[in-house]
């Protein structure tokens, strides 16, 4: 690129950086607020940490999560890619075919260098599948449609578990920024006046729709830490026609209402676990109202992303790790024969020999052999534990790396929009490849050790 | 297969140690709660976990130690 | 400070300070390995074997911190 071109790109990046710095979370924290609402990057929340959020069949026994949908997308994309690469195969490959041939050749060379020719050919389908699946998952998750791009709205009903009288409604509306419109008042001459929040924070309405307010009367009371107790006065006299601001659930199992059941302590109704979003009390629910068991008192509306990287779901990585471990054990079983394979876990030969010696009268020899036998059995158990912990380490390594990467990109985007996330996207490309290599490579190494162990040591 | 490929089996060793110790302590805490003793089973769990982890780790690196003893000039042949 | 914020502080500090040590350790292991390889390239197999072993044991220390912070975050 020419010198001028470089300078131009540098200038654009610098401008974007400054605008991002001023308009992002850092700038907002320092009190600069120059971006229009449309361009603002919202603060992003990962609603459930260990697994994806259900988006279809949410109430059923088998909810479809967004991570599951993402893994289907990965399968479809990988299949289409393979079909496109092999559709018109030629002796002298074109670009796509050449790329795929090169990648597969590199993969099979790697596998054969570790496991040898014969075993390498046997392991190739499984290892290559794991590698390609993990890598496609990681790379597709970098597309902007993943994460908070496409939204699906899920409604959850909140029901009471006990009968009684509502004593207190605990969720308050939240004004997300200063001067947000929190109510509309219709004056006598028909015009509509807005009531604005004096600061961002939680507040409580002291009026309801259709109430008449006189000028200066309190419409709401701020509950936040800074402006505690500040009253929001009505700018004009008139009838309240609309209370604008939604209530928000921001924590797991946040208390929603207090119900007096006649017992000493009032019962608290919580919002459901792993569900955040906007809460709307059911029509007519108010303090002093009687409720019976399983009455619906509120509705929670949350919007999980439609797609979320499949490897950020612990169920997904655990399933893959289970598959890998089963593959390793199966290869050990078929490669070394049933007797040798089980002998590693249940090593009772020495114990039996010791018992036999004891019964034939050789007490000292028998005792020695028995002790060695017991130790051998314990060591077999240790071997089993060490094989099973592989599953945990496989699953958590992939899950941890992918989730950390996602959170890294999200928080970088939140802090300084547009520019700051770019280096991390590059890092994510590297991490995706390395994690695929590690998952596939470790499966390969363990499988070839399981196969080759017996023939080399015994 | 190259010799050092065998070393890759140690990659999950951290989880092995952590799970042995953590699992034994968890079991000890549960037993303590069940029998309403204060700390005996937890302590026993700590030592059992340490023992299991150390034994298993030694088992895993045993071939490696032997191999390196053989390779060093002063070692036994 | 209320108990809730102290809890989050504890989780974060356990994770960050606890993982600082293994991170430094892994860096030192990598440094030492590369130096050793540069001095004595023929001993590649032995050096790599020992590197992987020590790196795995260092990882164990990090996993303690991880497990403690997960337990703190979920239980406490």
What does this structure look like?
The complex is a heterotrimer of chains A (458), B (77) and C (76). With 458 residues, chain A is an alpha+beta fold. Chain A is built from ten helices and 20 strands. In chain A, helix 4 crosses helix 5. In chain B, helix 1 runs antiparallel to helix 2. Chain B is elongated and about 55 Å long. Chain B starts with 12 loop residues before the first helix and ends in a 6-residue tail after the last helix. Chain C is elongated. The A-B interface holds A 113-116, 378-379, 382-383, 385-386, 389-390, 392-394, 396, 441-442, 445-446, 448-449, 452, 457 and B 1-2, 5-6, 8-9, 11-12, 14-16, 19-20, 52, 55-56, 59-60, 63.
Largest interface: A-B, 24 and 19 residues
Gross morphology of chain B: elongated
Major sheet characteristics of chain C? none
SS-derived structural category of chain B: mainly alpha
**Which sheet architecture does the biggest sheet of chain B show?**
none
Structural class of chain C: mainly alpha
Radius of gyration of chain C using CA atoms only: 17 Å
Tally of DSSP helical segments of chain B? 2
| Topology order of chain B in helix (H) and strand (E) letters | HH
Mean pLDDT of chain C: 86
Q: Evaluate the radius of gyration of chain B.
A: 18 Å
Query: Which regions of chain B are unreliable across 5 or more consecutive residues at pLDDT < 50?
Result: none
For the terminal residues of chain B, how far apart are their CA atoms? Answer: 23 Å
H/I helix tally of chain C: 2
Low-confidence segments of chain C, ≥5 residues, pLDDT <50?
none
């Amino acid at each position: 690129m020419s010198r001028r071109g470089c300078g131009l790109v540098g200038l654009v990046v610098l401008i974007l950086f400054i605008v991002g710095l001023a308009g992002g979370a850092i700038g907002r924290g320092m009190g600069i607020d120059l971006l229009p609402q449309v361009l603002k990057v919202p603060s992003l929340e990962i609603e459930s940490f260990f697994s994806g959020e259900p988006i279809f069949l949410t109430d059923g026994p088998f909810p479809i999560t967004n991570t599951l949908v993402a893994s289907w997308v990965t399968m479809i994309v990988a299949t289409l890619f393979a079909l496109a690469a092999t559709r018109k195969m030629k002796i002298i490959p074109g670009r796509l075919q050449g790329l795929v041939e090169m990648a597969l050749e590199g993969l099979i060379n790697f596998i054969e260098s570790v496991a040898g020719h014969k075993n390498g050919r046997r392991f190739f389908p499984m290892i290559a599948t794991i590698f390609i699946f993990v890598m496609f998952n990681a790379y597709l998750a970098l597309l902007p449609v993943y994460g908070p791009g496409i939204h699906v709205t899920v409604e959850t009903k909140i029901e009471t578990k006990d009968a009684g009288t509502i004593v207190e409604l605990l969720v308050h509306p939240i004004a997300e920024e200063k001067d947000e419109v929190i109510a509309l008042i219709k004056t006598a001459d028909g015009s509509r006046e807005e009531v604005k929040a004096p600061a961002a924070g939680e507040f409580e309405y002291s009026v309801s729709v259709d109430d008449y307010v006189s000028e200066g009367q309190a419409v709401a009371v701020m509950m936040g830490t800074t402006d505690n107790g500040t009253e929001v006065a009505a700018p004009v006299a008139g009838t309240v026609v609309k209370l604008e601001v939604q209530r928000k659930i921001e924590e797991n199992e946040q208390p929603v209402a207090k119900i007096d059941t006649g017992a000493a302590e009032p019962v608290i109704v919580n919002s459901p676990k792993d569900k955040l979003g906007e809460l709307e009390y059911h029509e007519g629910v108010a303090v002093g109202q009687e409720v019976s068991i399983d009455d619906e008192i509120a509705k929670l509306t949350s919007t999980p992303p439609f797609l979320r990287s499949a490897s950020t779901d612990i169920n997904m990585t655990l399933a893959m790790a289970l598959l890998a471990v089963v593959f390793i054990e199966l290869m050990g079983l078929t490669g070394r024969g049933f007797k040798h394979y089980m002998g590693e876990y249940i090593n009772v030969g020495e114990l039996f020999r010791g018992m036999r010696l004891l019964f034939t009268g050789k007490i000292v020899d028998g005792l020695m052999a028995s002790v060695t036998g017991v130790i051998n059995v314990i060591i077999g158990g240790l071997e089993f534990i060490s094989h099973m912990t592989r599953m945990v380490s496989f699953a958590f390594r992939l899950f941890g790396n992918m989730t950390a990467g996602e959170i890294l990109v999200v928080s970088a985007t939140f802090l300084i929009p547009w520019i700051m996330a770019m280096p991390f996207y590059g890092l994510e490309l590297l991490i995706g490849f390395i994690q695929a290599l590690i998952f596939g490579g470790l499966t390969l190494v363990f499988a070839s050790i399981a196969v080759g162990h017996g023939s080399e040591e015994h | 297969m190259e010799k050092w490929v065998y070393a890759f089996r140690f990659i999950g060793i951290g989880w092995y140690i952590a799970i042995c110790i953590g699992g034994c302590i968890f079991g000890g805490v549960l037993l303590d709660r069940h029998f309403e003793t204060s700390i005996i089973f937890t302590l026993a769990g700590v030592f059992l976990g340490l023992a299991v982890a150390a034994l298993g780790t030694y088992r895993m690196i045993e071939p490696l130690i032997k191999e390196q003893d053989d390779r060093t000039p002063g070692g036994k042949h | 400070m209320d108990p809730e914020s102290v809890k989050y502080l504890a989780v974060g500090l356990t994770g960050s300070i606890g993982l600082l040590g293994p991170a430094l350790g892994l860096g030192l292991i990598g440094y030492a390995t590369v130096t050793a390889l540069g001095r004595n390239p023929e001993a590649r197999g032995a050096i790599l074997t020992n590197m992987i072993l020590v790196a795995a044991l260092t990882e164990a220390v990090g996993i303690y911190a991880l497990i403690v912070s997960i337990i703190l975050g979920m239980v406490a």
